[in-house]
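Researcher: Can you fold this with adenosine-5'-diphosphate in place?
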Amino acid sequence: MNQLHCQKNAEYYPAERGKTAAPFLENGMIIGVKRSFRVEKMVGGGGFGQIYRAVDLESKLVVAVKVEPKSSESGRIVLELNILVQLAHSSHIPKVYYSGEVGIYNFIIMQLLGSNIADLRKFQRSRSFSVETTSRVGIQCLECLKTIHKLGYIHRDIKPSNICVGIGEHKRVLYIVDFGMARQIRFSDGTFRPERPYASFRGTTRYVSLTAHERKEQGFVDDIWCLFFSLLELVEGLPWKNIVDQDQVCNAKRLMLNNFQSRKMGRNFEMFPQILERTKRIETPDYERLIGILKSSCPSFNELEEFEWDDH
Ligand code: ADP
């Protein structure tokens, strides 16, 4: 695997980032040194990077290219590559095939995925998913988070647009993407990174935990809070969806959690936030119990069934 380089020179920093910027790569362009890939089309963009579909010219495999300017904040893509490689054993993380640089950009070649579930929800006539789909999304994401956390990392930006569906034989598998905001909180010797008295805001306002709103150090459980708010949005919407002000969003979350009830997920799901509230920052969350709650929310749970978006 090639080493990526981080260029901190502001002169290379583009005025616009990610999906709002002009395309970083041209269609038809060939990238790579030891292996060559032909860029075909932009398929996604985030806050920093752009994602293209490309073809491996030797194996003809269709792949995804994630590209970011070398000047990008703290070398996000370098961190991302490092984590993706460590998580190669997880079936819910895209596989990395190659990495390199082209001009002022770093890139990672990885497994091509399908749509993210934020987009898929918007295509639904009801703008929401069934309890079955939501529970399956939750279960697969919890399994994935368990693997990420076992390595000592927290993702810090779990949200529907960072959860993608697989394609072809993997179409019933969900993948977590975008490790650009991840942080290692436990090291391989089992010690924890010291807690800071003040932590800058990290995450996406709509989904972050109260801990993140309060600018406190996040732990494993905070990823699951993001997942909890994401699941609620998928199944029945969030009352703060049109609020931009962070403090107002935080208050709306507090209000909801004071007496949490779910219209569609049933009584058992009310225990989900209660368990999270009792889990301390460096404690290992009880993934199995949370998975059990999601399974009990839908008696017809069947992971072999097609997802409701399969007929698109
Ligand atoms: P950023 O780090 O710039 O925020 P992301 O990694 O979040 O970028 O990717 C942005 C979007 O691109 C995602 O919401 C997703 O829809 C799409 N995407 C990400 N990775 C892949 C992939 N491997 N295959 C296909 N689409 C992807």
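Model: Folded with adenosine-5'-diphosphate in place. Residues 6-15 have pLDDT under 50 and may be disordered.
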